[in-house]
Amino acid sequence: MVKPILKWVGGKTQILDNVLALFPTECNNYREPFLGGGSVLLAFLTEIQEGKRALSGTVYASDINPILIALYKHVQTNVDTLIVELKHLENEFSNLKRISVIHSPKSLEEGKTSQESYYYWIRQQFNSLPDKTTVQASAMMVFLNKTCFKGLYREGPRGFNVPFGHYKNPTLCDEVNLRAVSELIQPVVFTCQSFEQSLTSIQAGDFVYLDPPYMKHCLDYVKASNKNK
């Protein structure tokens, strides 16, 4: 089975069988308004591919996080370039020896003083991007997700602010899995929108899977989050 391309707080990878057991075997459209790491979506698509479930309509996946949706769209339509960008980051990161740790590197040279310094350099570069929906930004997001503390996604006033995760040998570019996910999600319609917007198009026979972020994390998820919703 394909694996999610991101680590994600609240992901359902460990309980997929329990979640999917509650799904209907047939439906019109499938809608998932809180996409996140996408483990349930990928498992659902796999079961459709295997003939275990029947879908007469379309799969719609959405999230309020534009950076996340941009990543899925690049995996879907531009996976070759994404892999090239990720391999570049992976090669630079994996070849670094620890000289010193600089938490606010002012240059790539300072960023290459250790893997931890490089993480903070990429984090700074990511946060300074005027457009975080490009394929380069998506590669940076995957890199940060794989090397940050516990795969958290958290934003503050200055952008993504999760500290370094100190993993020994993180897999930054799983090319085989990325290509498998790309093939699997080809028919999916990805949209950046609030869950309220996504629910306005529900039709008879649709199945909607709702799995909102945990309350304590939702305010840091994206600036548009509203804890009361």
Describe this structure in words.
- It contains 10 helices and 8 strands.
- It has a single domain, classed as 3-Layer(aba) Sandwich (Rossmann fold), CATH 3.40.50.
- The model is unreliable at about 225-229 (pLDDT under 50).
- The strands form 3 sheets. It has a 4-stranded parallel beta sheet, with helices on one face.
- The two termini are about 35 Å apart.
- α3 (about 65-75) packs across α7 and α6 (about 115-130) packs antiparallel against α7 (about 135-145).
- With about 230 residues, it is an alpha/beta fold.
Q: What's the SSE blueprint?
A:
Elements: H1 16-20, E1 26-27, E2 30-32, H2 39-49, E3 54-55, E4 59-63, H3 66-77, H4 79-94, H5 108-111, H6 115-128, H7 135-147, E5 155-156, E6 159-160, H8 175-184, E7 189-192, H9 195-198, E8 207-208, H10 215-221
Helix pairs in contact: 3-7, 4-7, 6-7
Throw out a few tags for this protein:
229 residues; alpha/beta; Rossmann fold; 4-stranded parallel beta sheet; two-stranded parallel ribbon; 10 helices; 8 strands; 10% strand; elongated; disordered C terminus
Quick structural overview:
The protein has 229 residues and is α/β, with parallel strands linked by helices.
Number of strands: 8
Percentage of helical residues?
A: 40-55%
Poorly predicted spans:
224-229
Q: Strand portion, in percent?
A: 5-15%
Order of helices and strands: HEEHEEHHHHHEEHEHEH
Counting structural domains, the number is 1
- What is the class in the CATH system? Alpha Beta
The number of helical elements comes to 10
Structural classification: alpha/beta
Report the biggest beta sheet as strand number plus sense, adding barrel if it closes.
4 strands, parallel
Q: What is the residue-averaged pLDDT?
A: 92
* Rg estimate, integer Å: 18 Å
Order of strands across the main sheet: 7-4-2-8
Shape-level CATH architecture: 3-Layer(aba) Sandwich
Q: What is the straight-line distance between the termini?
A: 34 Å
- By CATH, the topology is Rossmann fold
Tell me the overall shape: elongated
